[in-house]
Amino acid sequence: MSAAADFLRAGDPVLVFTEGARDEEGNPIVPAQWQADVLVSTARRELILVNRQGGKSTVVGAKCAHGLIYEPGLYLIIAPTLRQSKLLFRKARAILKRLRGAPRIVKDNDTELELENGAQLVALPGDSDANIRGYSAPRAVYIDEAARVSDAVYAALRPMLAASRSGQMIALTTPYGRRGWFFEAWEYGGGAWTRTTITAKDCPHITAEFLKEEQEGMSDWQFRSEYLCEFTDTDEAFFSSELIEGMVDASLEPW
């Protein structure tokens, strides 16, 4: 590609999405406005709460591919299991490989990708904090299915960014109950996090007929969580969060 075209793409990550992202039939995708906003965001801490099949993996894959080319460094993908981490890894790798003039790939396997410019992409399992220690100063940490990643793993990830002034932590997920670090960050994290939320009703490719079928075939909490992005109590909860909150008297001082 020409130097001018490469310069434009360097300054506009949306061009990476339009050039490299594809739907299930292999057709180019036009990014939704929220996806464009995520692509250009420079927020250091970002929470992305989007319904199933809403396009969150595609946009983060494109954002990662842009970073690998134009801000080389270490990029980490974490998910509850290695299988899930590899799904987002493959998404980013596929987008990267479609881009004209991208740096040559010098290492490529199921969990690691390295470019000739020194950029590295690594997929890791988030089933134990022991599996992710040892990495430092990443350009970005992407936490997929973040609501299901344990508090211990999240706590082990945060110090990685201590030596990275511009390093980003981006957590993408659908809700999974009213507990865990993601819920706490979403509800009580204040200005420390930039938040994006999209529900199935915001996605033109998800029809009302499909949603009706899903609502009839799932439990209420599952439907509200998976498609409406509501933090609801799961069937695992013995007492509802509303009942527990109603038993707490905030006026009492601890002793």
CATH superfamily: P-loop containing nucleotide triphosphate hydrolases
Number of strands: 8
> Major sheet: order of its strands?
3-4-5-2-6-7-1-8
Radius of gyration (Å)? 19 Å
Dominant shape: globular
In the CATH scheme, what's the topology name? Rossmann fold
What is the H/E string? HHHEHEHEEEEHEHEHHH
Q: Which blocks of ≥5 consecutive residues have pLDDT under 50?
A: 237-250
Beta percentage is 15-25%
Q: Helicity level, as a percent range?
A: 25-40%
Q: Label the structural class.
A: alpha/beta
CATH class identity? Alpha Beta
Average predicted local confidence, pLDDT: 90
Oligomer: single chain
CATH-level-2 architecture: 3-Layer(aba) Sandwich
Tally of individual helices: 10
